[in-house]
């Protein structure tokens, strides 16, 4: 991680400012001795103290919608102008909106609006509505920016309305009404999806929805109409809206977001779990071996790459691991999330990821939002029924696959699927077989460069092999 | 001066204006619901609990 360092006022160690925390002049986040702190500056200390005293902070923290914190001594501040320092409860893995499934983004949007409604009722408001202010903890969304609240000034419109529409409404509408893959527009622009772009891409019939017509299409048109016009800008800053109307606006926005539906069907892999080639006995054998191998790897965090709908993620979770369940298919990850949310599970968190094209660093200096590999912290990686997809469909040599494994974790549970397997034959059906080196022996040799093979067991009735690797 | 002028993110002129317009429109049904609820309470007499039917928050 690239960080700006700042001399500490009194503490001996160095404060490393988070590269993604620079927009709000009221405060920022930094690390000292590996511990995360948030500094509150002179511009926002009065609002912060009033927020704590209002009871709203306690209610939001108590209901798990705002991250909790502990006040710490000012000597731990990063800079001399600090007026307060808090230590927020840590979030184990920071994920980004372009890695979330449709319902994860929708749940984060609804959380933001529900918190805004509760804030309005208490005479407060959110001064920003960035999707990056929401994280997932124990499988549920939570707001992590404690400094997002300010007193509601009588008659003031919602300053974060535009940001909410760009960060949440536009991508959700595009995913639901145009194409689920348009979530990747969030990765192209850290400020969200420009509303005029969303309006261009959305089908014309979305204008028939009052919510999308007003919050998105007319909103985009109004932005264009008033852009760069100084007189109009002054007029806009005088715009007034009373609280009951503001509540009606947020409620309408909430109804619009809630009304967006996407059914995870028809994409590549969503039926894959029900459509695999192995027998019940092979499945049972694989489940037993995965549970056994995961239990032999120490640590608490597991990443399941190519998790599909999460069958083996659950096995790792049942073995006591906190699991990130990555899959390239938004439908599979979505199904996984809905099931986990329905079960109230807290130990599996599905995310959308193409292993061959992991999230890069984006934003200012390319470090404002960190790359996936920069955030990688698993103790063990599961790569089940994945190697043949990368090696054959994506032409990734075993040596490069080994590099990825070695970069990610000290322990790997990996399944090798031989060429004779019906799934591999299917991958080769439409192309020339240029993979002479695709064999278990070649795979063992490649991973052997970086790993010890701790265990190797055949999966019954399948010809497949499960290996447990330990990094040297 | 409103907080709007102090906001650290750009609220956008068009975004401020459109929300005032949209809020005025979506507030109308809420206003009527309040009136209908009030009339309904009067018609039904004093048996209804006070506050019933007031403050619908979600306009789905």
Q: SS-based structural class of chain A?
A: alpha+beta
The proportion of residues forming helix of chain B, as a percent range, comes to: 40-55%
Low-confidence stretches of chain A: 1-7
Assembly status: heterodimer
Quick check: average pLDDT of chain B?
Answer: 70
For the biggest sheet of chain B, the summary is: none
Query: What is the molecular shape of chain A?
Result: globular
Distance between the termini of chain B: 34 Å
Order of helices and strands of chain B: H
Strand content of chain A: 15-25%
Give the spatial strand order of the biggest sheet of chain A: 13-12-11-14-15-17-16
Structural class of chain B: mainly alpha
Number of helices of chain A: 17
Could you describe the largest sheet of chain A, including whether it forms a barrel?
A: 7 strands, mixed
For the secondary structure, the number of strands of chain B is 0
Average predicted confidence as pLDDT of chain A:
92
Q: How far is it from the N-terminal to the C-terminal residue of chain A, by CA?
A: 24 Å
DSSP strand count of chain A: 17
Instruction: Give the helix level of chain A as a range of percent.
Output: 25-40%
Radius of gyration of chain A: 24 Å
